[in-house]
Every structure is written in structure tokens, then in C-alpha cells.
Amino acid sequence: MSPFIGRAAAAFLVLAAAVMVPSPVLAADPVLQSHPLPELRPKAALLDLAAPEQNQIWIVGYQALKPGYPGNPVVHRWNGRRWAGFTIPNFSSRGVLSSVNATTGGEVWIGGTKNGAAYMAHLVNGAFVQVPAPPGLTSAAPEHTPSGLWVPGIRTQPGASTIWRLEGTAWVPHSMPMQRVLALKGISAEAWAVGNAPGEDDSVPGVAHYTGSAWENVPYPAPFSEGSTLEDVLPRTSDDIWVVGTNYTRGEPRPTEPLLSRYDGSTWTTVALPPEIIGLQSIAQDASGKVWISALALSPAEGAQQRPVVIGTSPDSIAWTVQEVPSSGEFAVHHEGRDNLGIELTTSRLWLLSDIYPAGPALFTGSLLP
């Protein structure tokens, strides 16, 4: 999911290099391999990934970007043999698809911006059907959860925004105690959202919990920094909620610090990370319950550039392993709030969508099974 317009147009931050102490846990052999992407026209970008099941690997973005022209939207699915493109109803040009949400139950929703207005569509019998977006939005990022279909909205006042839920055929607004939502995940009749909390600006991390009847603020211990945000959430159980993000310290020797915490319903606990990790983006779990996170790491060599990695651990005993990716460019680019990690439920195959400068989008995959 890419739950806000910021996922479509988020300005990326290219983090500076730093000299780090080597971390033995990051010395594992690479197990991820490059995977071909669909052929796209020049000036293309892929903005979101969903990989709930085997042969259900979805990517969205845009192509043919030109000065003064927002590009053309694209959505493709890997079916195990090839990439299949889909017709996007009433939307072939002048816009971006920034969000794809796909579930193991077969629900697939896409969203983005068309001519400056929100656009969304639903996969029905193998083809996408346009669905009217909630009113007043410039971008849509639908998220299908057990508690319903949600679309984060816009800030209504300092510290609050509106989030919409589809109830029957009508969009019903709900008050959200956060200024900006970057990710939303559901569990049973509840849901959790992360992004930026109430404050004078949107640089303070925020967490909200849908209890089944209303969204409530969950105070998060914000770090001391020039700005920080939470980018994804994983509700493993009702009393084990994991959140990931980045603290933009912009200092030396580390330009940023990762944020990883878990919540037991009353207390936040910081989870220690390997020292080379400088930022976290997306979080998921495999069929065994092991937690995996897409991250940025800095090599120990002087002058090294940041690279994409995936780190994993058992939630019961924290011991990190790493999945490296083949080198394909100078450095990895961080895009705030993009969902770039997916794990097939039944096969435990992991997928990672990265942006590598100057090559552009790159897709990697590997099995998590022994």
C-alpha cells in the first residue's frame, strides 16, 4: 500500500555516506537475485509493490514523464511466467498510480492521481473497474482490511485528518488523530495506522489504532531530531504491534537513524538493530511468523554508499540475519512511505522493489525457506 499522496510525489532523500564499524550480522552471503521488470517507456518509476501470494506480484507507477507532463500510469502483475499489463479504465495518460493493495483473498485495489484528482479502481473478474474516490482528495491509496476498505484523507486541522471507509456504496468519513497517514494495516476488526502525529508540523512520528468503532491516538515516544516519521506498521497480534521508520538526524557520522519499536498494548519497546542499518521502510512477516524489514545500510568501507538490504528476525528472540541484493548502481534512494516489500504467504518468497541510482527501479526476489 502507498497510503497517501506523499507516496506518489514524495521527495526522496539521498543520504550521505559515513564510516561505520563493521557489523558481523551483515556479512551473510547474498540470497536475493535480480528479477526482470516489465518493459517501460523512458522516464519511468515504480512506486508500490504488493506480493500476497505466488503469481500475484503487483507493481504500479508511471512512464513517459516529460517536462510539464505528469506521465502515464502503469499496473503490471507477474503471473509466474511473464509480466501482464492491465488496462486502467478511464485513465490512460496524465497521471500516476502510486498505490496497489492486494490480499491473499484476491482483493486488488489500485489508486493514484489523475489530472490532479484522486483515482482508484478495483479488480473484478480479471479486469479493473473504476470506483469513485472519496470527495475532495487529490490522490487515493485504498487499503482493504478485515475492518473494511479505508482511504486516508487530508489534514482537516492541526493534528488531525479525515480517513474514509467504504460502507455499503457510500464513503463515510472518520476522524483520524494524525496529520498524515503513510501506512495502514488491519487485524481482525481492528486496524493500525502510522505516519505523522499531532503537532505544529508533520515531522513527529504518529500511531493511531482503530478499535472497531473509532480511531484513537496511541502516544509514541518521539526521538530528539530535526524530523522523523513512521513509514510502516505490522500488527502481528492484537498485543504485538511493530512500527518502522526513520529519524532524520542529518548529522555526522550517521546521517539518519532507524526507528523500530513494538507495542504490547501499554508500553513501547525499542528493538535493537545491527549498527550498519540507517533507515527502515517496509515490514512484513512470513508464514512462520518471522519478521522481515526493508532497510538501508552503509558498508563499513570509507566512502561507501548506502545500499538496500532486507533484515529478518524471530520476534521471540531478536537475532538479525540479512539478505543482500546484487550490486546494480551507485547507491540506493530512499522514498518516504513507499511499500517496497512483500512476502508470498504460502511459498515464503520475498520480493523487494528498490530505486538504485542511476539505474532506476530494480526488483529482487528470493526464497526464505531453508
Task: Characterize the structure shown.
The structure is a single chain. With 370 residues, the chain is mainly beta. The chain has one domain: YVTN repeat-like/Quinoprotein amine dehydrogenase (Methylamine Dehydrogenase, Chain H), CATH 2.130.10.10. 1% of the residues lie in helices and 51% in strands. It has one helix and 29 strands. The strands form seven sheets. Strands 1, 26, 27, 28 and 29 form a five-stranded antiparallel beta sheet that branches. A four-stranded antiparallel beta sheet has the order 2-3-4-5, with no helix packed on it. 46% of the residues are buried. Mean pLDDT is 88; it is low at 3-30. Keywords: Signal. Residues 1-27 form the signal peptide.
Q: Outline of this structure?
A:
Residues 1-27 form the signal peptide. Keywords: Signal. The chain is mainly β and 370 residues long.
Terminus-to-terminus distance = 29 Å
Please identify the oligomeric state: single chain
**CATH domain fold name:** Methylamine Dehydrogenase, Chain H
Mean pLDDT across all amino acids: 88
CATH architecture identity: 7 Propeller
Percent helix: under 10%
CATH-wise, what's the superfamily?
Answer: YVTN repeat-like/Quinoprotein amine dehydrogenase
Taking the sheet with the most strands, its summary is: 5 strands, antiparallel
Beta-strand proportion: over 45%
Radius of gyration: 19 Å
Q: Can you count the beta strands?
A: 29
Note the overall shape. globular
Count of individual domains? 1
- Uncertain regions spanning at least 5 consecutive residues: 3-30
Structural class: mainly beta
Summarize the helix and strand pattern as letters.
HEEEEEEEEEEEEEEEEEEEEEEEEEEEEE
